[in-house]
Specification:
Length: about 70
């Protein structure tokens, strides 16, 4: 879905995280040069969002050489 200005887009998706089905949307805002200026992801159900976060945390740690990310 694209708004009338063409700068805001909503993309719907579904996936599996471990054995949990996930549904979600990406909310993307573009500037006048068609560059992304804001990107939000909304996921349900909450348990699947938490599992996805765990997977993402692990992947970031692996990319950082095993060190815990600094907050």
């Amino acid at each position: 879905i694209v708004d009338s200005t063409g700068t805001n887009v909503v993309l719907e998706f579904s996936a599996m995280v471990d054995a949990l089905p996930v549904q979600g949307i990406d909310l993307i805002t573009f500037d006048s040069d068609a560059k992304i200026v804001d990107f939000k992801v909304m996921i349900r159900p909450p348990e699947a969002a938490l599992r996805l976060k765990e997977h993402m945390d692990r992947r970031v740690r692996d990319l950082q050489g095993g060190a815990r990310p600094k907050l």
